[in-house]
Design goal:
It is a single chain. The protein has 6 helices and 6 strands. By secondary structure, the protein is mostly helical. The protein has one domain: TIM Barrel, CATH 3.20.20. It has a two-stranded parallel sheet with strand order 1-2. A two-stranded parallel ribbon has the order 3-6. A hairpin with a 2-residue loop joins strand 4 (103-104) and strand 5. Helix 4 (77-91) packs parallel to helix 5 (111-123). The longest helix is centred in the N-terminal third of the chain and has 28 residues, at 4-31. The mean pLDDT is 92.
Length: 154
């Protein structure tokens, strides 16, 4: 239900996940101070705080992440761009590296479509992008094709 116990449970779950992120940050930096800590997060921070307990804006605000990588897997460039726009705000000073769902459960993109989404990340000044899922087809076809053009070293 949506009663007060539900709200308490959501807070409890979110605070436990946040405690793990904070402890991971502190313990990893105690061993290796310059380590880079990232998280692959669900893409819609306001609703995902409750739906999956990820308060990744808080994690960014507190400096517990050095990179945040939302899983923006969609076949819609408009949806992808809307998420990247919002995520830049939510991430604040933490570099944003959106995930492109080349072959995720919710999206299967053509190489042209992947290139379009890479261009969206570049227009928004993100620190890069991630391709998911890196399997045999991506290794044999997509990645070499991207290397000939959009990701070629100049």
């Amino acid at each position: 239900g949506d009663g007060p116990l539900r709200l308490q449970w959501l807070d409890w779950r979110r605070s436990n996940i946040t405690a793990v992120v904070k402890a991971t940050n502190e313990q990893a930096r105690a061993i290796k101070p310059h380590i880079k800590i990232s998280a692959a997060v669900f893409r819609n921070w306001p609703s995902d705080r409750d739906s999956v307990g990820q308060d990744w804006k808080l994690w960014c605000d507190n400096g517990w992440l050095d990179l945040v990588c939302p899983m923006d897997y969609t076949e819609s460039n408009t949806t992808f761009e809307n998420f990247v726009t919002n995520q830049k705000t939510w991430a604040g000073k933490v570099p944003l590296i959106p995930g492109i769902g080349a072959s995720a459960s919710r999206s299967h993109l053509t190489p042209e479509h992947v290139i379009q989404q890479i261009n969206i990340t570049r227009r928004h000044g993100t620190k890069g992008f991630i391709i998911f899922n890196y399997g045999v087809p991506q290794a044999k076809e997509l990645v070499p094709m991207l290397g000939l053009g959009i990701t070629a070293k100049r």
